[in-house]
Design goal:
Layout (H helix, E strand, L loop, with lengths): L7 H13 L9 H5 L9 E5 L3 E7 L8 E6 L2 E8 L18 E8 L10 E5 L2 E7 L15
Antiparallel strand pairs: 1-2, 2-7, 3-4, 4-5, 6-7
Length: 147
């Protein structure tokens, strides 16, 4: 089983990002320097039902062919690239706030998933992965009779 390396600065960075985003705090640029594997990271929601795990990643402005999904040693990796628009002749950018460049997110999967049955859907800048659980891992109700 492959373990993901814990980065203590990542948690501090996410905390600062949460509070600095509304006021456009200058510290926000440090986030890109601290993430060594990619230029930026998409926001991700992970939920769970009795039958599956659901991963939703926001990747606006990215083409389907620029996204790669890989699973190795129970680690799900979503990679891709958001290509920056070229400045046209006579056009001058005054502000660039969107993230550009490569991105990568990795998540450890539990042992109880059917990796070969993962479904991926990409629509309107939202990547949705449905990761089914194995039959053995689904919760079962057992009735206990009291005598």
């Amino acid at each position: 089983m492959k373990l993901a390396k814990w980065d203590p600065f990542h948690e501090v960075d996410e905390l600062l990002e949460r509070y600095s985003r509304p006021v456009d705090w200058p510290f926000r640029g440090g986030r890109q320097l601290m993430n060594r594997n990619a230029d930026w990271a998409p926001r991700v929601d992970i939920s769970e039902t009795d039958e599956k795990f659901i991963v939703k990643a926001e990747v606006p402005g990215i083409q389907r062919e620029d996204i790669k999904i890989n699973i190795e040693d129970h680690v799900l990796t979503i990679q891709g690239e958001n290509k920056q628009e070229k400045e046209e002749k006579g056009e001058q950018f005054h502000r660039v706030e969107r993230y550009y460049g490569s991105f990568s997110r990795s998540f450890s999967l539990p042992e109880n998933v059917a990796e070969e049955k993962i479904e991926a859907n990409f629509k309107d800048g939202l990547l949705t992965l449905k990761i089914p659980k194995t039959e053995a891992s689904r919760p079962k109700a057992i009735e206990v009779k009291v005598s």
